[in-house]
Each structure stands twice: as structure tokens, then as C-alpha cells.
UniProtKB/TrEMBL annotation:
Name used for this protein in its record: M23ase beta-sheet core domain-containing protein
Organism: Nocardiopsis mwathae
SUPFAM superfamilies given in the database record: Duplicated hybrid motif
Entry's transmembrane regions: 7-23
CDD domains attached to this UniProt entry: M23_peptidase (cd12797)
Region Disordered: start-end pairs: 254-273
Length: 273
């Protein structure tokens, strides 16, 4: 697994060989192609390894936010919700939708190309511990970049995502907190605001305690919270774990589970556990 995690190095070396090659189909070009193939096979094998076993019951935790939010890219709509890679099988993205106040800038075709993260209601929202646990890792130095909410910026985002995927997991996660909540289950919080992390490795936290703030670091198109559970602290080799929340949708109905995509909801006041 240690070698397989380094598939990005094979991709990078292969691409470099092809780019510097000036002799047509030369030994250097062939080497580059072979490295790309090897890197692709390593990535494919690792992703297959990260497919979780079926039949595991969802872990019931509290919602890691407060206020009104909308669910996107969640496991209630499809599985895997993102991809099996990086233990994202059951991951979900959350965007803050306040009942009052300014709305997020809309997606545009051309102009403006991007917006500062401060223009989005999600930016700076508290991120809370979903259960009692111990902090196993944090990062908080990556910048909060501009949004990718226009067609040119979105095209750039796909190229950016590919490049980030060749590097270490932190390039995708941005600023993050990993929290071990018992029985080997680790909760991951990604794209956090730079400098907002309030905990450190080894800290014991209680359910509902603020860990950080929502940001726009890492592989993110606009400020939001990426949340997932996994069976280990290394997302490059861990497997995703399903989870459930107690929440209330905009009609007032209470649910235990995960909201479907585009569902607007708030945490239930008597959250479990």
C-alpha cells in the first residue's frame, strides 16, 4: 500500500519524460508511456482496494454544523457519493443557506470569473465535533482560494483536481481535522478556513465542540464543508463508513439518516447520540 499510494509520482515522472522528449517515439517517450500506464494501474488497484464491504450499519453521529444547510454529493442520492478513492464512498458536501441575509454569488458563464470566499455564507461557519473523540491529525496553513464558479474557472478546476489528485491527500483536503470517535472510526472534515482550527493532535473533544470554521481550501469550488467517516486516519488507504444524522427538513419533518442532494435542512434539536 505504501508504494501504491505514490502513484502520483509515476504519473508525474511519465508526463515529464513525454514533455521533455524531442525525438519522436524514442526510449524516453516509451519510458514515459510505461510510467503513465503503471501509475494508472496503481491508482485503479488502490481505488478498488478502498471499496468498502457491504452490509455495515451506519454510525449515528451528530451533525457537524448548526443552522440551515443544503446537501450535495451525498450517499442518500448515490453510492459512491464522490468516489471510493480517499475513503469518500459515503462522503457529503454541505453548503450553508441562511434563512435571512445575503445569498451566495450565482454560477456565471464567463464574468466574473471568481469570487472571494468571504462572499459566501458558508465561509466562517462553525464546524462541530459529531461525537466525543480524540484528534488524530490537523492542518491549517493552506490558503482559502477564489471560487471556481464560472465556466472558465470550472474548466480550470477539473485540471486542478487532476493535479491535486496526483499529490498527497492534503492537497485534496486542504485544511482539515481528523477525529477518532471510537471503534476505529475516524471523522474527516475538509476544506476548512485557514488558521481556524481550534484543536491539536491528541486533544480530547466533546460532541458539539467547535473544531474549526468552514473554508475554501484544497479541492473546492466554493466554501463548503466536506464530511466523511472512514475506518482509519489515512484517507489514501482507508475505507469509507456510512453514517446517519437526526435532521429536520424545510417542511418540518424529522428524519434519521442522510439528506438527499438539494435537501434543505437543519439539525434536529434533540440530535443523537
Amino acid at each position: 500500500m505504501i508504494l501504491w499510494k505514490r502513484h502520483g509520482l509515476f504519473f508525474g515522472a511519465g508526463a515529464l519524460c513525454i514533455l521533455v522528449n524531442s525525438g519522436g517515439v524514442s526510449p524516453l517517450w516509451i519510458t514515459g508511456v510505461l510510467l503513465l500506464i503503471v501509475g494508472g494501474m496503481m491508482r485503479w488497484s488502490l481505488t478498488r482496494w478502498q471499496r468498502p464491504t457491504s452490509g455495515r450499519a451506519p454510525v449515528t453521529v451528530r451533525m457537524p454544523v448548526k443552522g440551515r444547510w443544503v446537501a450535495l454529493n451525498g450517499p442518500a442520492t448515490r453510492v459512491p457519493s464522490h468516489t471510493h478513492s480517499h475513503a469518500q464512498t459515503y462522503a457529503i458536501d454541505l453548503i450553508h443557506l441562511p434563512t435571512e441575509g445575503p445569498e451566495a454569488p450565482p454560477f456565471t458563464r464567463v464574468w466574473p470569473l471568481a469570487h472571494r470566499p468571504e462572499h459566501y455564507p458558508s465561509f466562517g461557519q462553525p464546524v462541530l465535533a459529531p461525537a466525543d473523540g480524540v484528534v488524530v491529525a490537523t492542518a491549517s496553513r493552506m490558503r482559502d482560494h477564489l471560487s471556481r464558479t464560472s465556466l472558465p474557472a470550472h474548466a480550470f478546476f477539473y485540471l486542478e483536481s487532476f493535479v491535486r489528485g496526483l499529490g498527497w491527500p492534503c492537497h485534496l483536503w486542504g485544511n482539515y481535522v481528523l477525529l477518532e470517535i471510537g471503534d476505529g472510526v475516524v471523522a474527516g472534515f475538509a476544506h476548512l478556513r485557514r488558521g481556524s482550527v481550534r484543536v491539536a493532535q491528541g486533544d480530547r473533544v466533546q460532541a458539539g465542540q467547535q473544531l474549526a470554521e468552514c473554508g475554501n481550501s484544497g479541492n473546492s469550488t466554493e466554501p463548503h464543508l466536506h464530511f466523511q467517516l472512514m475506518d482509519g486516519p489515512d484517507s489514501a488507504t482507508a475505507r469509507g463508513i456510512p453514517f446517519s444524522w437526526s435532521y429536520r427538513d424545510d417542511s418540518g419533518a424529522t428524519h434519521i439518516g442522510v439528506p438527499e442532494d438539494t435537501t434543505r435542512f437543519t439539525p434536529h434539536t434533540t440530535q443523537l447520540p
